[in-house]
Fold:
Amino acid sequence: MVQVPIDFALLLSASWLALRGRRDDARALAVASLGAGAYVAAARRLRQMEAPFPIIDLDGLALCPPGSFGAEYAAFMQARQRRPLRLSADCAEQLQLRHRLAVRCLLLFDALQLLLGFEAGIAGRAGVLAFLGAQHDGPACERAARWSRRLSGIAAPLERARIRRCEQRGRRLADLAPNPLLENIESRWSMPLDELRRSLRLPPACPLAQRPTRSASRDAMGSPR
Structure:
């Protein structure tokens, strides 16, 4: 594991953008500050992507065939009153050379939660981050997974057991399947969700992992609109 320093210049830029109301760009810069680049194998696959930062239209995805990845993702987001992040052109240009992995993790995090079968609360997020950290694709993902492991139980002490189960499940899934974010999953919205999971070597969703929790409700109330 390579220790990469946090980029405090990006953090300062993120704070400035947040003060100016550019919350999506600010979040992207903050995530990118956790560590530049991806390790060799992941970086090679990411360089092949012509448009690594997708613009996601929930209204359009809701029109996808029932049971498809796009329709299920739109329902997942709308049920939780969430919206996809959208980067400005200048922010995307600034980050796409060295921060493709970290920013794709941010932009497609909810889509990955859906694919992995986790709900949208703190425990579900911890499970996704554990999956990403166990992939060992880049320093930002590894650092986010370590911080999540230390802080999630503090943020939701009544859900510590569930958080640990989700983290364990995330690491087990990482042993079964490579990181879907190294694929152009955003080009497969019309594919049936179960078929997409099989093509990515992921198992069907776990009902226990999808069960609503109090933190999922709080997450929906505090999510970007």
